[in-house]
Amino acid sequence: MAHTGTLDISHLSKQYDVKGAALPVLEDITLTIQPGEFVSVVGTSGCGKSTLLRLIVGLEDDYRGEILLDGKRVVGTSLQRGIVFQEHRLFPWLTVEQNISLALLNSGLSEGDQFRTVQSHIDLVGLNGFEHAYPYQLSGGMSQRVAIARALVTRPDILLLDEPFGALDALTRAYLQQELHRIWEAEGITMILVTHDVEEAVYLGERVVVMEPRPGRIRRIVPVDLAHPRERSAPAFSRIRDTVLREFGDKPAAAAAPPLAPEAPVVTDHVPLAFQFAI
Questions:
Q1: What is the mean pLDDT of residues 59-78?
Q2: Helix (H) or strand (E) holding 3
Q3: Distance in angstroms (rounded) separating the CA atoms of residues 273 and 105
Q4: What is the pTM of this model?
Q5: Do 170 and 96 contact (CB within 8 A), yes or no?
Q6: CB 73 within 8 A of CB 8
Q7: Alpha-carbon gap, residue 258 to 262, rounded angstroms
Q8: Do residues 16 and 167 touch, judged by C-beta distance below 8 A?
Q9: Given this model, what pLDDT does residue 261 score?
Q10: Is 231 helix (H, G, I), strand (E, B) or coil?
């Protein structure tokens, strides 16, 4: 089981400079995530969900407030904080095994330990037999499983997931949601999932953080006190899903606000090489 830490976010605010004017993106975000917890974050486009993940992972450091992991301020990127994006970002000229092993480039592990660690994570994500396959030989869902294995192979304290299943068909998405829950239980790792899919958020999360936009703020945190495996058609599941959905209604101020500029893309320039492989 991986070591996991406590993440404390306190009065976090973030703004971008757009044509010389300040554009607030996040405002006064305060949230504590316990070791081993699975937290889902939902909200409409432009509410700063992805910006929040970039700040936690350390891709940006220009913000107000505090982001602490085990009491220490998050500064820059670290293999303690893995991330998986909507696009799998695999290197097309490398095999499954090679794509995963690149995350261990600066790990200090011996060649034998690296091999065993990679193999155990291939097994974890259910890709035995595909070690030597190239990305073009994999389905979208299989490629995302490789990306998850690559993010986990360094044994991070926290895994951040930014719409990891957003580009997949409904059946594949539902299957991978089950697989992600299995991996979370097996690894005992803290996971933070950003998604537009409320049902996905309730299915996976122990808490659902509902954000509202312009600037992004926490509107409500909804506990999900349901045992696993969760049945999507169960009345208790539907009640929690509907509770979250109701938070998206009746927000005239947000509706009247001008469109928010697209969030800045994730740029891996100047990010340590091993971390680039990890993401």
A1: 91
A2: none
A3: 9
A4: 0.85
A5: no
A6: no
A7: 12
A8: no
A9: 41
A10: coil
Q: Is the pLDDT of residue 260 over 50?
A: no
Place of tokens 């122990």: 206
Per-residue pLDDT, averaged over 38-44, amounts to 96
**pLDDT tens per residue across span 118-140:** 999 999 999 999 999 999 999 99
Alpha-carbon gap, residue 245 to 100, rounded angstroms: 37
- Cβ atoms of 203 and 18 within 8 Å: the answer is no
CA atoms within 13 A of residue 132's CA, in its CB half-sphere: 0
Please give the DSSP secondary-structure letter assigned to residue 6: -
Average pLDDT, the chain: 87
The residue extents of the domains of the chain are: 7-278
Cα distances (Å, whole numbers) of residue 97 to 86, 90, 145, 159, 176 = 21, 11, 12, 20, 20
The rounded distance, in Å, linking the Cα atoms of 80 and 96 is 22
Dihedral sign from CA coordinates of 175, 181, 184, 186: negative
Mention the CATH class of domain 7-278: alpha beta
With the CA atoms of 275, 31, 64 and 249 taken in that order, what torsion angle do they form, in degrees rounded to the nearest 10? Answer: 110
Q: Which two tokens stand for residue 107?
A: 């790990």
pLDDT tens per residue across span 157-193: 999 999 999 889 999 999 999 999 999 999 999 999 9
Of the candidates 105, 103, 191, 116, the residue with the CA atom closest to the CA atom of residue 150: 103
* Rounded distance between C-alpha atoms, residue 179 and residue 165, angstroms: 12
In this prediction, residues 59-74 reach a mean pLDDT of: 92
Contact 18/5 with Cβ under 8 angstroms? no
Q: Give, rounded to a whole angstrom, the gap between the first and last alpha carbons of the chain.
A: 21
